[in-house]
Backbone:
């Protein structure tokens, strides 16, 4: 009796399930569109595409039933005639090879890649050109104008200097972009072009100023980067990759003409300014010949972090002779005359980094680390010796983007410039009662491994939150502080500081920054910290 009851219950459940399935399939979205097209017996239309890479199954015509019917040229989607597509018959190419999306799906949301689990979005409008790169290498076919312009923008701009892209760009500073169109969403890519910190607050990539059409063209090109195209067989791919890897930059004559060509080929003005050309994100090079020796310039081009450890400038693919020729070219490049008045001098030499308002938010500030000093920080400047800002103007600040201006301005004009800056931006008069305490004479033994180890223990407890475990200024709290915590591995900067100045900074902090005073620590412990900080910046 009990078995009979269970059989009846299961039978009723199966009947209910069959009715639900029948009602669902009878009301399917694609069936409704086929009936609207005039099909009395709707059926799934399926194209199996085998000639282009991995096998594809496209069921798009289950809804887009009129795609090849010229009578529906004025219809509305999905019942509309497809525009002419030349030598791309649907039966042979299918739909998703160009449009993307999920060809197997039978609902609009799933087929158009709008589900959270979608592996590939459907591309419309100008973005549709991105998939031309699946079958066509550059130069792209007629009609792919946005894709072509996006690639040109990539090549002519600063993108190729930082990012790597096989066959096109050798950058190593930023992420490789070979498959960025597959790994990142359209929203992510668009946001990263407009504001690189929208998705990564620690990004050093500048926000490049470009017209909206240029951004959209660049988005089309980045979307096209989905790994090797199906027009390349594996043997050709390997051969091209090997040739690209083994290529070497050309050696050139070491003269100004060769340097100018290398300067232009290296796209330096995509970031920097020289003459009338200005990338608006990096320092002005107009007076570099008066500020840097040719050897310094060549070494900086070979490895920008050799002199400025936190530089955002990429190591460019240049030969030794090209680097030397660029240094010669910068020596001979014409320099604009400096204006006479301090306000105009500030605008010409300082505002690019320190900002027109002196707030440290100039055009190139976001790409510089350490960030340019905010000249409006009265608490900082009023607790520093008055001669220190003058020395920074004349001698520069080693290990940072601040170059020396002694040969550009001379001492008298530098003094006049600082006087104007103090009156205009610092504003607050120096309090004569505020004095910088002098560091006491060291009575502890000379630094040794034991003092360094004790300093490391204190550093781990007191300092890593801001300066990081490695002392590189990238602790958990670093992004919340401005100015950013100092990179204590910056050899060029630390070498320029005396032990007494380091001890004073540890003891009494740096007013106007996030550096607090640690005078509560025993004097010997503070000297141990100085020894440990020195050990971080030892030259190998």
Residues:
């Amino acid at each position: 009796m009990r078995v009979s009851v269970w059989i009846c219950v299961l039978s009723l459940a199966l009947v209910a399930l069959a009715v639900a399935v029948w009602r669902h399939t009878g009301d399917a979205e694609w069936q409704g569109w086929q009936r609207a097209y005039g099909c009395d017996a709707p059926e799934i239309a399926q194209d199996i595409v085998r000639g282009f890479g991995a096998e594809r199954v496209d069921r798009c015509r289950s809804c887009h039933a009129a795609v090849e019917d010229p009578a529906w040229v004025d219809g509305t989607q999905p019942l509309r005639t497809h525009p002419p597509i030349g030598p791309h018959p649907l039966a042979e190419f299918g739909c998703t090879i160009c449009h993307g999306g999920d060809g197997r799906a039978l609902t609009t949301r799933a087929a158009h890649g709008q589900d959270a689990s979608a592996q590939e979005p459907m591309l419309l409008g100008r973005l549709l050109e991105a998939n031309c790169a699946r079958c066509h290498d550059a130069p792209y076919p007629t009609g792919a104008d946005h894709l072509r312009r996006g690639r040109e923008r990539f090549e002519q701009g600063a993108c190729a200097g930082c990012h790597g892209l096989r066959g096109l760009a050798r950058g190593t500073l930023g992420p490789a972009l070979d498959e960025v169109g597959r790994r990142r969403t359209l929203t992510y890519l668009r946001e990263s072009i407009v504001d690189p910190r929208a998705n990564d607050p620690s990004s050093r990539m500048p926000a490049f100023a470009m017209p909206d059409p240029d951004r959209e063209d660049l988005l089309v090109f980045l979307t096209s980067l989905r790994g090797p195209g199906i027009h390349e067989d594996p043997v050709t791919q390997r051969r091209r990759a090997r040739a690209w890897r083994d290529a070497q930059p050309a050696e050139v004559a070491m003269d100004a003409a060769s340097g100018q060509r290398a300067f232009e080929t290296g796209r330096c003005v995509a970031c920097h300014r020289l003459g009338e050309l200005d990338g608006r994100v990096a320092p002005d090079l107009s007076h570099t010949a008066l500020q840097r020796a040719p050897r310094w310039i060549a070494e900086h081009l070979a490895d920008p972090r050799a002199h400025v450890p936190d530089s955002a400038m990429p190591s460019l693919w240049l030969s030794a002779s090209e680097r030397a020729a660029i240094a010669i070219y910068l020596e001979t490049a014409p320099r604009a005359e400096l204006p006479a008045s301090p306000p105009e001098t500030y605008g010409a030499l300082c505002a690019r980094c320190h900002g027109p308002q002196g707030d440290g938010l100039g055009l190139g500030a976001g790409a510089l680390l350490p960030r340019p000093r905010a000249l409006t920080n009265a608490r900082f400047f009023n607790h520093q010796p008055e001669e220190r800002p003058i020395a920074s103007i004349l001698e520069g600040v080693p290990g940072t983007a601040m170059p020396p201006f002694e040969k550009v301005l001379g001492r008298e004009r530098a003094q006049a410039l600082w006087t104007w800056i103090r009156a205009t931006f610092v504003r607050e008069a120096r309090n004569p009662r505020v004095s910088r305490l002098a560091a006491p004479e060291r009575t502890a033994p000379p630094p040794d491994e034991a003092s360094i180890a004790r300093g490391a223990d204190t550093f781990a407890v007191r300092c890593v939150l801001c300066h990081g475990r490695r002392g590189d200024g990238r602790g958990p709290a670093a992004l919340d502080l401005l100015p950013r915590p100092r990179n204590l591995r910056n050899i060029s900067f630390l070498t320029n500081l005396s032990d007494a100045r380091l001890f004073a900074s540890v003891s009494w902090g740096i007013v106007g920054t996030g550096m607090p005073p640690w005078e509560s620590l025993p004097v010997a412990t503070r000297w141990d910290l100085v020894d440990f900080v020195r050990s971080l910046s030892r030259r190998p």
Summary: The beta strands are 47-49, 56-58, 164-165, 169-170, 273-274, 277-278. The chain has a mean pLDDT of 89. The two ends are 89 Å apart (CA to CA). The first strand starts at residue 47 and ends at 49.
